[in-house]
Amino acid sequence: MATEIIRPNGTSSSTGFNLSGAELAAAISDSATDTLITQSNEEANFIVTFGNLSVSGVTINSITVTVSAQSSGRAAEANMSLAINLGGNINLMSIAFGSDLASQVSSERTTNASSAQITEANISDLTATITAGEEGIAIAEIFATVDYSVVVPVLTYDDSAHHVDLTSGHIDISSGNIFI
């Protein structure tokens, strides 16, 4: 199994933070915990889109989302909720952050909103919705960790040896001929 981290590459909506749009996405996706977006209104939320995986033709095993944040100072503790769209909306967690910067990881998700296996298309369309409480929060970064397995072909053809290898399963021939 392999993992890949994907980060926000855009926003589809944002309100109540000191940054918005492309600036908001850039600040929370730069891998730097000293670049923060800060809640500026009591009602604050945003939706971010994510970049695609750098690989294709893989089996998605699971996904987790990590949020690094802290209270912005208006209260000792700041609350937020995280939902993702993974073939439909899924509420992942409600989180409380104190005055020190901390990271929290969602529970591992192995199925999409339809309780089916997560697909590459689900990952390509992945969005995360952050809804901040009224206390005031500063968010440093958000990223998703995708665990995947490379799909091993069952049937291969070796042109140099002129033979076909079947590693498992069977071959059904509904019509035609086989010449040896």
Describe the structure.
This protein is mainly beta and 180 residues long. It is 7% helix and 47% strand. It has 2 helices and 12 strands, in the order ββαββββββαββββ. The protein has helices at residues 21-28, 120-124; strands at residues 2-6, 8-15, 37-38, 44-50, 58-71, 78-85, 89-97, 102-105, 127-132, 137-150, 155-158, 163-166. Strands 1, 3, 5, 8 and 10 form a 5-stranded antiparallel sheet that branches. It has a 5-stranded antiparallel sheet with strand order 2-4-9-6-7. A hairpin with a 3-residue loop joins β6 and β7. The protein is elongated and about 80 Å long. The two termini are 38 Å apart. The mean pLDDT is 90.
Beta-strand content: over 45%
- How far apart are the first and last residues' alpha carbons, in Å? 38 Å
What pattern of helices and strands is seen along the backbone?
EEHEEEEEEHEEEE
Number of strands: 12
Give the oligomeric state of the chains in this entry, treating copies of one chain as homo and distinct chains as hetero.
single chain
Question: What structural class should be given to the helix and strand makeup?
Answer: mainly beta
Low-confidence stretches: none
Biggest β-sheet, characterized? 5 strands, antiparallel
Mean pLDDT: 90
In angstroms, what is the radius of gyration? 22 Å
How many helical stretches? 2
Overall spatial form:
elongated
